[in-house]
Design brief:
This protein has 173 residues and is of the alpha/beta class. The protein has a single domain, classed as Rossmann fold (3-Layer(aba) Sandwich), CATH 3.40.50. Helices cover 25% and strands 33% of the residues. The strands form three sheets. It has a five-stranded parallel β-sheet, with helices on both faces. Strands 1-2 form a two-stranded antiparallel ribbon. It binds adenosine monophosphate. Adenosine monophosphate (AMP) binds next to strand 2, strand 7 and helix 4.
Length: 173
């Protein structure tokens, strides 16, 4: 497998979406076919031996990575979505972001009881999003085996909010 320098393909956009935020843009990574493939292959190789029942993707950039990963692992994909998007009965949670607050939802019947899942999002910042998602996933009856990110802003110490859960990331700042 080719070894692409993934970090060099992430574009830093200063002051987006608000002043002071250094936005890590993954569009410049996924537009490179070898890099995108390397991300998915690396994650699939890591999770294939673990007997995963489903991949959970966090709206919306998490979907970009969770769908090909689920296909590669030959398991289902469960979306965690922003409010009002999922049509059937949901669990909902409100949480704090690096910028602002938000809510997330999951279908109540998304999992078979005790399903072993990995959760993927594009980026770990403060950990608020993934921590909320993890609570929803457990409320819906699944077991979180690991939290995976393409990018981790390690200086924000998001891992501290995720005590007890294994965290894996491909690129760290
Ligand atoms: P957090 O809940 O603080 O861990 O924030 C994580 C979510 O916000 C992820 O879904 C990211 O897509 C987005 N996010 C937060 N900070 C950044 C950043 N500096 N660059 C790109 N995305 C970010």
């Amino acid at each position: 497998m080719t070894n692409v320098d993934l970090a060099s393909l992430v574009r830093n956009v200063p002051d987006f979406p608000i002043p002071g935020i250094q936005f890590k843009d993954i569009t410049t990574l996924i537009s490179n076919g070898s890099a995108f493939q390397q991300v998915i292959t690396t994650l699939a190789d890591r999770y294939r031996p673990l007997g995963i029942d489903a991949v959970v993707g966090i709206e919306s950039r998490g979907f970009i990575f969770s769908a090909p990963l689920a296909l590669e692992l030959k398991v289902g994909l469960v979306p965690v979505r922003k409010p009002g998007k999922l049509p059937a009965d949901t669990y909902q949670i409100e949480y704090a972001l690096e910028y602002g607050t938000s809510k997330l939802e999951i279908h109540r019947d998304a999992f078979v009881p005790g399903a072993r899942v990995i959760v993927i999002d594009d980026l770990l910042a403060t950990g608020g999003t993934i921590s909320a998602a993890t609570q929803l996933i457990e409320q819906a009856g699944a077991r979180v085996i690991e939290l995976a990110f393409v990018i981790e802003l390690a200086f924000l110490n998001g891992r501290d909010k995720l005590e007890g859960y294994p965290v894996y990331s491909l690129i760290q700042y």
